Each structure stands twice: as structure tokens, then as C-alpha cells.
Amino acid sequence: LPAREAAWPAPPRMAAAAAEAARPLPAPEVEPDAFDNLADDDRRHVMGGDLVLLIVENDLGFAKVMLESARQAGFKGLVATTGASGLAMACEYRPSMVTLDIHLPDMAGWRILRRLQADARTRHLPVCVISTDDAREQALEAGALRFIAKPLQSRDELDQALAALHQYALRPTRRLLVALPDPEDRRALAQALGPGVELVAAQDGAALHAQLREADALVADARLGGLAPGDVREAMESHPLGLQLPVVLWMPEGRHDGPWQRQRGGFRLLPATSAQELLGQACVALHRNAAELPEAAAQAVEAVGGARRSLRGRKALIVDDDMRNIFALATVLDDHGMEIVSADNGREAIRMVESDPAIDIVLMDIMMPEMDGLATMQHIRRLPRGRELPMVAVTAKAMKGDRQKCIEAGAWDYLSKPVDPSHLLSVLKGWLCP
């Protein structure tokens, strides 16, 4: 890489601000049994070190079949039948892996996938999408580890798929296939990634093809000959675990029109034009947990996540009867280019949602006089545009069942007061940014 000493992130240092940026956000203050255990899953028996599969599935009968198959594969299983409860359980239990139905009763599964990827606590979670076959391309391009088509042909098909996912979750290291011409660039990338990654170098096209089907991710120079998107798709078809092969495309001279742009599709393509971006995208492709990365790598992951998600121009409605709370939230959002409108009661909030189609998201205080936030959200969900409008409950309460009440009333997400600004921004980016 040009100007290598300056381009590559510096070695880990004990800078307090950087350490704070890399540290995972605190877990939400919610009781472990806040959601009804409709499938009789393993939530009461999860212990440290368990491999946990979170099953987000609309069909409770099929979810129970998946739970049985997951246990047979070696997972502890958790079941959520709505997107909002699935998201809350992902943040609360930090599972090893997630299976995601796209057709959920409260929202499309794509929204959950984007929300997980925007949050420092959950962006590393491998997600297997289980849906109708027409969602396959979009699922893989969006970053799903695997796609399983409905309807399944047999229980054996499900058992084999979950056994493969369990095998992936068990592996202590990830294999990164690297096709960078300069050996010094490969060495620098390996050093920056830290432990937990086996870096396999490919010197030419022939060596690259031989290693593709055994890799967890590929880093390739866009100028390298002898490799095309079709080769990646072919390798995925013969992958021993049936997993996708994300590609980090190194373009040090900037983006350009080539086969990787014209023929892409069927796998995740992560472009990188700087050394930090290359490092961050490699960590994303390998599903590395930012909390377990060297400082420089964690910062790189955060940088690539923030770079592609901007809140500028989005409009938020803040509903709170205390102007001090509205001001505090509005100050954070205004700094990121958002447009802010506010209401100090539920009836005014409903009127604004009805009359202003530009509102993109609602931050709803729960404890308000006359018409509280729960009743307000229930009413908004009955409006013509209310079904697809993201609403985030904001409350000072942290009592057992409080989060479930908010979700049942129509909230897609939940923030506890005092609101952490970093968490607030990741929540908004997860719902509003593609």
C-alpha cells in the first residue's frame, strides 16, 4: 500500500477515547423473562460458554421444529415470533447466531438485519435468513451468512443446515483468503487483525481458485486477473458448510467500473479504498466481535459502519411532556443533520404523524399525562402509514415486563433514560439507513 506506515492504523494504544469507542454498549436494563416463552425455549437455562441460536420466526409451529433441530445440533435455542422481540432478545442474550424469517408480523426481516448491523453489540452476529427463495440474492448481498429456502423439503434438510451452522460457530478461528500482490501488505493486514484469524495467501489465480471453497472471506485486489464474481458464486455452491463467501475488494486507486461492479450479485461485496477501510471490512466479513478485537481493528470496524450510514436530512418526531428531554435529544440529532419536530402530548403526536408524511421515525416518551406513550403508539399503528413507521419507546422505567408492554403497543425498539447518545445514534441508523 502507498505510504504504508501512515496508511495502516497505529498499533493498539491505551487512549481513553478510543477504548471507549471500541467498547460494546451496555446491555439494556430488562428482566431476562420479559417476553412470553411461547415455544418453551432454553432462555432460563443459558449459561456462559453456551452456543445460543436465536430463532426469529413468524410461524410458531415451525419455530418449535427449528428449536428441536437446534438442540439436536448442539445449540441452546431462543425463540422470538416478532421482529421487535427478536431484536430485543439479540441485544439481551448476545446469541452466537441468528436465524431470521423475512415475513414477520410487525416488520420485514430486512429491517432487523440492518438494525443488527448498525449496533456495535450485534453487528458481528452471523445471520442465516430462512425465507422464500426469491429473497436469496438480497439476503446474501445484505450480509446473511447462509440462506435456506422455504418451504423446506424435509426435516433432514433443516437438521443438516443447523448442524453446519453449529460447526461454524464452534470454530475458534476464521480463515481469510488474501490475494494482495505485496507480501508486506498481507503481513500488515494479518498483524492488524490480531488473533483468531488464519490468513491464507494466494499468489496467483490458480492458487486462489484452489482455496476459495475453504475460505470464510476473501480479500482481493480489484486489479488481479484470473478471478471474477462467477468464481465466487461457484465456490459458494461447493462450500462444505453451504456458507456464503463475502469479498472485500481492495481498490487503492479509488472505485472504478470493472467486472466486480458489473457482474456482482449473489454474495456480499465490501469495497475498500483505504487501509483502515480494508481492515474494517475484513473484520465485518469475518463476523469479528469488536469487543474482542485489537483497538485499531475495532476503530476500523466502527469507521466503516459510520461512513456508510448518514442521518442527514432524516426527520424525527420527539414526543415528551418535558421540554428538557426534547432539547437533550434534539441537540444530539441536530448535530448529525437531522430535522427535528416535537410534540408534548400524545394527541398532538398523532395529529403530526397524520399530517406530516416526511416524518421518518418517532421517539416516544412513555410516561405522559392524559394519553401515555403506549396508547399513543397503539393509535399511530392503526393509521394508514403507521404500520411501516419506526417507533422507539423512551422511558425511565426499567421494570419487569416494561419492554414487552412497549413492543405490544407498537414500539420496534426501546431506550432507557438517561439515553446514551452513541446508542441512540446506532438505533436511529439501524432503522433509517440502508
Compact summary:
With 434 residues, this protein is α/β, with parallel strands linked by helices. The protein has three domains: 43-170, Response regulator (Rossmann fold), CATH 3.40.50.2300; 173-307, 3-Layer(aba) Sandwich (Rossmann fold), CATH 3.40.50; 315-432, Rossmann fold (3-Layer(aba) Sandwich), CATH 3.40.50.2300. It has helices at 4-7, 16-22, 60-73, 83-93, 109-118, 136-141, 155-170, 183-193, 205-211, 229-237, 259-262, 275-285, 295-307, 323-334, 346-355, 373-381, 402-409, 421-432, and strands at residues 52-56, 76-80, 97-100, 127-132, 146-150, 174-179, 197-201, 217-221, 247-250, 269-272, 315-319, 339-343, 361-365, 391-395, 413-416.
Description:
The chain has 434 residues and is of the alpha/beta class. The protein has three domains: 43-170, Response regulator (Rossmann fold, 3-Layer(aba) Sandwich), CATH 3.40.50; 173-307, Response regulator (Rossmann fold, 3-Layer(aba) Sandwich); 315-432, Rossmann fold (3-Layer(aba) Sandwich). It is 40% helix and 17% strand. Helix 2 crosses helix 13 and helix 15 packs parallel to helix 16. The chain starts with a helix and ends with a helix. Mean pLDDT is 88; it is low at 1-33.
